[in-house]
Amino acid sequence: MSNRLIASAIALTGLVAVSALAQTQSKPALLAKEGASKTAAAPKTPEGVPDLSGFYTTSTTVPFERPKDLGAKEFFTPEEAAAYTKKSLAAKAPTGPGTYADVHYDMAQFGLEKDQNKVGTSIRTSIVTGPEGRVPPQLPAARQRAAAKQAANRGHEFDGPENRGLPEQCIYWNGAPPMTSGGYNSNIQISQGKGYVAITSEMIHETRIIPTDNSAHLPSSMKMLLGDGRGHWEGDTLVIDTTNFSDRSSFRGSDENLHVVERISRANADTLKYEFTVTDPTVWEKSWSGEMPLAKIDGPLFEYACTEGNYGMPNNLSGARADEAKGKVPNGRAALGE
Amino acid sequence: MKKIAIALAVIGVTLAVAPLWAHHSFAAEFDPSKPVKLEGTVTEMEWINPHSWIHIDVKGADGKVVNWMVEGGSPNALLRRGFTKDALPVGAKIVVEGYQAKDGTARANGRDITFADGKRLFLGSTDSGAPEK
Amino acid sequence: MQTRLRSLSLTKALATLAVATLCGIPAAAQNAAYRAPRTADGKPDLNGIWQALNAANWDIQAHGASAGPSFALAADFAVPPGPGVVEGNDIPYLPAALEQRKKNLANRFKDDPEIKCYLPGVPRANYMPYPFQIIQSQKNILMAYEYANAVRNVDMVKASKAPVDSWMGWSNGHWEGETLVVDVTGLNNKTWFDRSGNFHSDALHVVERYTMRSPDVMNYEATIEDPKTFSRPWKISMPLYRHVEKNAQILEFKCVEFAEELLYGSLRKKGTGPNANAGK
Asked: Does B82 sit within 8 Å of C164, measured CB to CB?
């Protein structure tokens, strides 16, 4: 569950902040309303397959799950969507002495706030599609497993690097499918060469290399954080089928039985339409799906070398040892009463 | 799989409000009971990830110069806007407000970074909640 | 006119032969100018999964076998011999840099950035003993390496300048006939050329040339220029071989985790670790 859940929750906070910058940058990319036909023919590569290549952001103003007060409402009107976007962008995390923001650098100073960067927008009320617009509940056994693991780690969060989580370890951020609205630097590059599509995530410079020959997956004993993806074209849509996940890049509680099917197509010159279906029979009773826009950005991606500059890990462990030496329990946000 | 625990703990907070700093617990690193205001001269800026670091020579009350390192954000968004490594030259005078590292070393988070004339470094920000001076 | 042309081409042929014999790539390959199959947009097709087949990652110069870092691991991690990939086998270090190289060599089993799974830089990424994949289009050529998810994007449209230094540098590419020429700048000073401590400064400038020589083999050459470290430019060259097996695939080699105990072990809570589940 851990790290992509963090990233997804981070995206959730996109509820809270989005793009006033939309006014200063080029127009946000609006997804066409469901059912509207594509206008011009989708551009093709010289190989004759749809051209999806380029740079995109996975940052979006659409919340991952539908706010409870919206009930079964799957779509905003364009006006409602704009108002919702504006409201969520305007809200910010609390600052001031005693808050977490106080012991942090100022995100806005470095251009890392969501409203300082391009975001994809749509009239959907949630990324999760369907009447509820929410991730289905986990099966009881899965919930028990998760709770047991949580309990086992309680009090050990700063024992060693392996307790800190894959992002802080600089091992993995959120490059595995399904793509989600990450935090800052939430950018990807799609490259296309003969027989392959590559999707490079800026953090932490991971590339999914997808053959488009619908070939067989790796043996099931092979488990990778990004899984093993196999693609093929269906008309104008790239379909990617990914299995062979490790349980460590867990997505919202998924384990190694995760199976993700993605569909990527061009909505317009500035936007890709991105749909995904998640299946994991040991975690959810049934499959569930999502859809979100991928908005075009100017490239390139910038290098996010992580372990090479990871002062944070030794600093955190050192801080924890300093706390322990003073007889304090090392912790982070709890110290600030959050 | 200890990471789930951390994730769940973090989620509890992020659902409430939040920003995207879950990948590195600043509150584990810096001590809110040790505020610092550093006025110094830039000796180096590391334009690196996961966090940039600004190194400054700070003259203490005892007259001794100590080189502090100040933690900033990923520089990638700045690069996207056209900033380059020349944007903060060696010798620039800056003022840093933040908190000192828990382990007592000369390290601080850069909650507010301004030039001596009060102009903000890099980009503007909303009210940072800095305490009254 | 004809005589002059003929003697020009003879001179060129002799020069090419001379260069070719120095760097070990057979002259026949240079002269024959093998015409590679084309991509749909008419360029030599470099798409594929490639790997060097030499001991350059251990030491880019000619070297004999030597002991590895560990008695316990004995022959497994001994340093194998290699005939070298440096043209003329000479790396023209400036005097101060030569001293640093000797220090690096003496401390190589501690200071080699590869030990910590740090990004390998250019050209070393291309001769790590792991495959990498070239994904080629008109706009960009992506080089995705199995080692540490290293990746380079070669811009084929508009040459630009790096705003800051990086581990994998800033790559601008263009075609010269059968050859992909990649100009790499913006490299930081933190990578080594090999495990034996050959190194460079942040003034490093690498010009690479990728040329197909037969359906499954590519000539790879890199000219190294770094006036802070070397007295003149120098060159490496080697073949890169295509992985032709049907199940060839870049797999996940996230080695950061294997370096954690080395990097942070001294900071862990007493009585815990090391992490027995690394990589699982």
From this structure: no
